Amino acid sequence: MTEITHEELVSALQTHFGFDTFKGEQEAIIRNVIEGNDTFVLMPTGGGKSLCYQLPSLIMDGVAIVISPLIALMKNQVDAMRNYSEEPGVAHFINSSLSRGEINAVKDDVLNGRTKLLYLAPESLQKNENVDFLQGVKISFYAVDEAHCISEWGHDFRPEYSQIRSMVQRIGKAPIIALTATATPKVQKDIQKNLGMLDATIFKSSFNRSNLYYEVRQKNSEIDKDLVRYIRSMEGKSGIVYCLARKEVEDLAQVLQVNGIAARAYHAGMDAATRSANQDAFLMEECQVIVATIAFGMGIDKPDVRFVVHYDIPKSLEGYYQETGRAGRDGGEGQCICFYSPKDIERLRKFQQGKPGS
Questions:
Q1: What predicted TM-score, i.e. pTM, was given to this entire model?
Q2: What confidence category does residue 355 fall into, taking pLDDT thresholds of 50, 70 and 90?
Q3: Angle, nearest 10°, between helix axes 246-258 and 223-233?
Q4: Which residue in 285, 288, 289, 294 sits closest to 312, CA to CA?
């Protein structure tokens, strides 16, 4: 790709996304991708990671393959991209939620050059029919989102992520950009080694979010009353309450509803339609609070979440950082309250027994 000037990049940013300036190191990262180099991005939640692959995909020849772990996240991002573009086929996803006919329509758009961004779950990437299809497509680069899922030492390890490199080798080589909001040095090395990108240019942003307020509170038998009181004090402001277990999520959502708080539940055990409806209700401000397991929130783009409460102690410090990072993404205030009791530590120990990196 020929050298691209600062003015050309800013002009593309304005045209496609309506922003006048880049945030932090976005411009340097985008330039590195356009120049065809492997790129590793460690950037806090809310730092603008997705733009780092969305903008280059629109500028470069071919289609960018974005590997992303959650169906809800893909849908969210594809909808957002289509809002920015005149061309409805500019972004697509292929995953288990699509019918055969829908998948064929997506493939047509890709083959006709209408699509610049194609989102796939790692499981979809492993399917032979998708590999065969992608071998016939010009790929600009691969973006691996939530890249910490590759590492056994990460807080959200997914075995199918470890197959990405061999899939890329089968489909055809192209530069890789790996992005994550949480990676210890050990996890970072692991990601780079796993993806075969030890020479990648590394971009790390500061993790201090000065607009977030952190507080730990004692958890006792009055916790439900305390929580109701706290949420009432945040009237008109959106928040997330995280619990460890699915049953607890449902029970607590009910307690809040009985107390006149517009709350919905969200966990991986619910059917997809209910889950999706509850998530949309939260995004559309039809409910104030979502009570969830940590399955909720990856890539959920709601900038004005004002509080994140942990009803139970979080599973890890990295996980806690990422979950609380969903507050105050618009730069406004975000309160992060964690309820603590020694009993929870015991429970977590039992929960984590025999799991890697525990």
A1: 0.72
A2: low
A3: 60
A4: 294
